[in-house]
Design goal:
Blueprint (H helix, E strand, L loop, with lengths): L1 H5 L1 H22 L8 H9 L7 H6 L10 H14 L3 H11 L5 H29 L4 H50 L4 H11 L3 H14 L4 H12 L2 H16 L3 H59 L1
Length: 314
């Protein structure tokens, strides 16, 4: 009974917060007072076919990823997209990542990250207010920085995921190209060779090639499907590979030699990048040597001489 009385204020705060969030969602989703956009008002008069009911569209639609918060997050994410990184940039990076996420879903995740950053900034501001007595402007500044940092963090994670995937595809390309060259030299056609590679390998590049084969089964030509792979990945090595396959198919030139030459070029580029990275690491390794090892060496070299001089003058 005593514990219930002690937790009474905390439970009241939590219940009041939940009630306030629920009422805010109801007011936000209510159609009263929400003016339709200009595009919504003009669309029925400019569309060739009558618009189907939203109830029919929602019958086979996937469930909302964030439940009742999905409309609110989508609206806030759309406003955030107007301020930072347009839809084209996000769509481009999601395609390069090979992700099935929509731009709206990514924006909703970005809003969640911003909300978590805002809460973290509020907590830090309250701690500083309790410890140092800072004012409300400092707390508001920390909240704004936390929200901006959360949104930037989600964007940075997407960019890092794209960079890691492209590095993996670059590392896989020489092996895939040589296996394709062996299959083509053995007498298989380009489509059959790509199908064999996709069934034998399991990397990111193999998945992109498998997606290209799936497009060809839907009626798309092999050259167009490979061009789509080059456009999605954005890698120069893959673009050269698609160009070589296209020239070989259009002009009848030997494809195996082209693939082997491209694999050798990618390996040479990787070796050059590795040498450049090792050169930068070598310069970075001088920092602990100069800061820690060299002073200790000088001390060990000078200390015996100082001790001898001290004994001789003593």
């Amino acid at each position: 009974m005593t514990s219930l009385r002690a937790d009474g204020p905390l439970l009241a705060v939590v219940a009041g917060l939940a009630l306030g969030i629920g009422l805010a969602l109801i007011v936000y989703a209510a159609p009263i007072g929400r003016r339709p956009a200009l595009t919504d008002r003009l669309a029925p008069y400019l569309r060739d076919q009558p618009r189907a009911s939203r109830l029919l569209d929602a019958a086979g639609a996937a469930p909302a990823p964030f439940g009742v918060f999905t409309p609110v997050l989508n609206d806030i994410g759309a406003r955030l997209g107007r301020l930072y990184h347009g839809t084209a940039s996000i769509r481009r990076r999601l395609d390069r990542l090979g992700s099935d996420l929509s731009v709206e879903h990514f924006r909703a995740e970005q809003v969640i990250y911003a909300a978590l950053g805002l809460v973290a900034g509020l907590a830090a501001g309250l701690l500083l207010a309790a410890a140092r007595g800072v004012g409300a402007p400092v707390v508001a500044l920390l909240m704004a920085l936390g929200a901006a940092g959360g949104a930037l963090l989600r964007d940075h994670r997407l960019s890092r995921a794209v960079a890691r995937r492209e590095e993996a595809m670059t590392a896989e390309f020489p092996t895939v190209a040589e296996l394709l060259a062996l299959a083509v030299a053995a007498g298989e056609g380009p489509a059959a060779a790509i199908d064999r590679i996709t069934r034998s390998c399991g990397g990111e590049l193999s998945r992109e090639l498998a997606r290209a084969l799936a497009d060809t089964s839907n009626g798309v030509s092999l050259i167009a499907a490979l061009d789509a792979v080059a456009a999605r990945t954005g890698l120069s090595s893959v673009a050269r590979f698609v160009e070589g396959v296209t020239i070989a198919l259009e002009r009848g030139t030997p494809l195996a030699g082209v693939l082997r030459a491209q694999a050798a070029d990618v390996r040479e580029t990787a070796r050059r990048d590795l040498m450049e990275a090792s050169g930068r690491k070598e310069v970075g390794m001088l920092v602990p040597v100069v800061v820690f090892v060299l002073p200790i060496t000088v001390v060990f070299a000078i200390f015996p001489s100082l001790a001898v001089l001290d004994m001789s003058f003593g």
